[in-house]
């Protein structure tokens, strides 16, 4: 799965272009830059977690961002003498697009790295079994460490689901009448999953 990650950008062999700085514009002084994620990134757990943390900043501050956006919209409406609810739909859509950009970037990284490690681990297991001629034997050198890494990456998938649920709940508290556009199939899936997890 090393070279099969889905992306709208061109992918160099063994690497994954990754980045969505626009999703964090006006929220952070230093938006994430585009980086090229390779299998080596996946095996550097510290670097992998740093990347995930960077792309979870929007979720960590979603309540503050919602409050600021609502306050700015109300102030603008008062100045223009229009209803307090004017512009709410547009505000919610803009924030939704920021959230989804972050979700997509993180899921791309998670899917890529989980696939890289799982595939390599599977190959090692198969080669080891063929070499020793039995299915129940001591793991090959380095296999245990790779199994630990694979488990940690799969755990990150569960963590990601929890973070998405939390940020979606905060979003829905301010955008009560918002529904994801029908064209956003994956985003609607995350939306429904968060609803069902209540």
TrEMBL record:
Source species, domain of life: Eukaryota
GO CC entries: mitochondrial intermembrane space
InterPro entries membership: MIX23 (IPR019171)
Record-stated family: Belongs to the MIX23 family.
Matches recorded under PANTHER family: COILED-COIL DOMAIN-CONTAINING PROTEIN 58 (PTHR31905), PROTEIN MIX23 (PTHR31905:SF2)
Name of the protein in question: Caffeine-induced death protein 2
The organism of origin for this protein: Filobasidium floriforme
Organism lineage: Eukaryota, Fungi, Dikarya, Basidiomycota, Agaricomycotina
């Amino acid at each position: 799965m090393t070279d099969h990650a889905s992306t709208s950008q061109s992918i160099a062999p063994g690497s994954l272009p990754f980045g969505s700085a626009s999703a964090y514009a006006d929220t952070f002084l230093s938006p994430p830059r585009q980086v090229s994620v390779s299998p080596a990134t996946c095996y550097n757990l510290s670097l992998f977690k740093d990347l995930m943390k960077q792309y979870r900043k929007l979720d960590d501050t979603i309540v503050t961002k919602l409050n600021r956006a609502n306050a700015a919209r109300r102030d603008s409406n008062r100045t223009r003498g229009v209803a307090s609810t004017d512009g709410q739909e547009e505000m919610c859509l803009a924030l939704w697009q920021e959230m989804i950009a972050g979700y997509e970037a993180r899921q791309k990284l998670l899917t890529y790295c989980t696939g890289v490690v799982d595939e390599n681990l599977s190959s090692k297991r198969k080669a080891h079994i063929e070499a020793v001629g039995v299915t129940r034997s001591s793991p090959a050198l380095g296999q245990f460490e790779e199994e630990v890494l694979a488990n940690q990456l799969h755990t990150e998938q569960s963590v990601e689901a929890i973070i998405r649920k939390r940020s979606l709940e905060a979003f829905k508290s301010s955008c009560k009448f918002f529904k994801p556009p029908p064209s956003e199939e994956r985003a609607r899936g995350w939306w429904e999953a968060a609803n069902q997890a209540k």
